[in-house]
Amino acid sequence: MHFPEEILALAQKIVTDFTARGWMVATAESCTGGLIAGALTEIPGSSAVVDRGFVTYTNTAKMEMLGVQEQTLAQFGAVSKETALQMVHGALFRSRADFAVAVTGIAGPGGGSAEKPVGLVHLAAKARSGGLIHHEMRYGDIGRDKVRLATLNTALEMLVTLGQ
């Protein structure tokens, strides 16, 4: 895939900075379908930084691969702060990474509701040492590709922030 320059610049910063510190990253992705891991692995030398990526598009995958609780999904839904937090915790627990980032959202064009509109994305990033960031983004119904790229950009920015 051809990633925009600003995304590649963020990915390069993560690979450079995390390599220098010996840190590794895991990704847990739903609506981005692996784009975060893909952007990071576009950068030469990323094998020193990218531990693994989980693409958990279905609720079953979120439960089986990341340990998201069925009760969480039933009570809050897949697109929620609670699910994103369980995804990021699961990615850290099931990897050797020092940092993890998780995203779950509604990229569209369909699938939204009044309560959870197209363009709603929950992102969480966590450091094994304890730092945690959550963002609820409402990008709007700007088109599937734009929602996914905006989510990718936000996720990489969160990793940069945690790594500082």
From TrEMBL:
InterPro entries: CinA-like_C, CinA_C. Residues 9-160 form the CinA C-terminal domain. This is Nicotinamide-nucleotide amidase.
